[in-house]
Amino acid sequence: MENFRETICYTRGCMNEETDGSSNSCYSGGCNKLHTHDWLSDIPSNSDEFDIVEVRFKNVRKAFFTNVNKLKLRQGDVIAVESSPGHDIGIVSLVGNLVKIQMKKMNVDVKTYEFKKIYRKAKPTDIEKWKEAISLEIPTMLKARQITQKLNLNMKVGDVEYQGDRTKAIFYYIADERVDFRELIKILADEFKVRIEMRQIGARQEAGRIGGIGPCGRELCCTTWVINFNSVSTGAARFQELSLNPQKLAGQCSKLKCCLNYELDTYMDAIKDFPNISVPLEMKDGTAYHQKTDVFKEIMWYSFDKNNSINLVPVPVNRVKEIIHANKKGIKVDTILIETEPKKDILDFQNQVGQESITRFDDNRPKKKKKKKFRKPNDNQKS
């Protein structure tokens, strides 16, 4: 029972048992994947409140449904919704006018999108059947992997999601090439006695569904908030002066980390006025080649050895521009850097009483010689 509760809490969110026998999810909402914070929850709702509700299912799967029965729903309620065939059990993730913004973000058009209906709040019988279906997901996934190995199919079953009424199961798989799984569907249908639906996902989507902790120490971005996966290239690492080490640049999905794109625009804006790094600097002493750049300090590092980064010289960007401009005129500069007088440290106070001296408590006065006292000789000394 404890293992089952951990499974349902991780894939659907924390479950709470009500006094009337029904169940609901944690109303804080932060314990589930792709959580959306309702920042309008403390504002009184109008009578013409938006009747479309966002419902979440296992892991990161979400959908929009119409509240045709005008049920009073709030975030975390477990409800029964329309599906094909039968019905499914989901959890309300967002209600009210904020759903409009979420639909706009997901590019969902109200006029063309076919919304399914919300039937009712889930009954205790619905909850029990739903929990039984959830308990079958991991064994089904492991059995399906064994079947694909026997059929020699070049694919990996990454996750299985049962419908709330146990009439359908969705198999999420990863494959590099096109796979003919018609025979696989027949075997799975005979084995599990349910309707089979196959959905292909990518490596990034699989990491989002499974979840995990990134090298930064936080949950994966694809699990918590990333919805659209933009392409990431090694050029993003080059612009940010990162070493092209695949082990450091790759995430848990074995693809380039999505966070390489987060600061790329800032770097691109900062280096737009920088000179071309492929242009060497010609001087009378030799030729200097670019090795690395400190973008935000506006310093470019050059070395007189083209193949090795030894004896690096930090050169300001303005000085690099001057040298390149002089080289275009056929002039070789004398030195790569302009010698400037070292700045003198100016103190804002004067140490008049020696407060900063570590020997200020030492006694440096000259010691006086002690006079020896004259003692009278004893009888033994006289003899």
Notes on the protein architecture:
The protein has 383 residues and is α+β, with helices and mostly antiparallel strands. It has 3 domains: 2-128, no CATH class; 136-205, GMP Synthetase, Chain A, domain 3, CATH 3.30.300.20; 273-353, no CATH class. It is 26% helix and 19% strand. It contains 12 helices and 14 strands. It has helices at 2-12, 98-105, 124-135, 137-150, 182-192, 203-210, 221-224, 234-239, 246-249, 264-270, 317-328, 379-382, and strands spanning 15-17, 23-25, 52-56, 62-66, 78-82, 87-94, 116-121, 156-162, 168-174, 195-200, 281-282, 287-294, 299-303, 313-316. Strands 3-4-7-5-6 form a 5-stranded mixed beta barrel. Helix 4 (137-150) crosses helix 5 (182-192). The chain is extended, with a radius of gyration of 36 Å. The mean pLDDT is 83.
